Structure prediction request, 261 residues.
Amino acid sequence: MADEQWRTRRGGVETALRTSAVWTAVTGLLADKQAARPTGDDRPLRVLDLGGGTGGLAVPLAELGHEVVVVDPSPDALASLSRRSAERGVAERVTAVQGDADSLAAIVGDRLVDLVCCHGTLEVVDDPQATLVALAGVVAPGGHLSIVAAQRLAVVLARVLAGQFTQAKQALVSDDGRWGAADPLPRRFDASALRAMVEQTGLVVEDVHGVRLFSDLVPSALIDSDADRTALLELEAAASRHPEFAFLGQLGAAVHVLART
Prediction:
């Protein structure tokens, strides 16, 4: 079962197996920020989503009252984002900008952001470290950076289960975590290496955990009800943070890093 399937099960961003754990972490962080503000400070929190595409994260965040800037190189994706935000009644809180990491400083200007999200993008940029530096540069004092990136060991296991043992070994030992020339992803990361890359920007890493530990390996027929999906999500959350078995987080299809200024 190849990891490129990146299956999104039934439900929205809050409940889909691919996104639920990250959504919970991000919205919990934003809720804490709102609660910590001085009395009378009710301005919307400002979020920047690099590579946010059609707004799978941005639109639900705008529905919570946040102001979201989506920076993406694809005009087609941004057009879909604009339609989606209008349909959901949050167009005034979502700004779509065509660009990339090199343009972030100019886009943000003096209005640094409370949260920067880079989910599923670091794998495909030309220079991941330079991208992280650019992201860190637009985070406001006291703000946070959220990184979600593909993880190496998940594809090793997926290639083994598919009987592709040579590909599994290549993914395990290669510098970029790829299983061969036909691999659709330019790179994957190990949690420890990604943490070090984020720390090199000067940010302080607060949390690192694996997501989608088991969900990409479970047949869809076994996760056909809300109760089944909830149970699987709870299992993944418990496994990724278990005091003795937290190493299971390294098997997640992705790793989620939260860091602050």
Residues 152-184 form one domain.
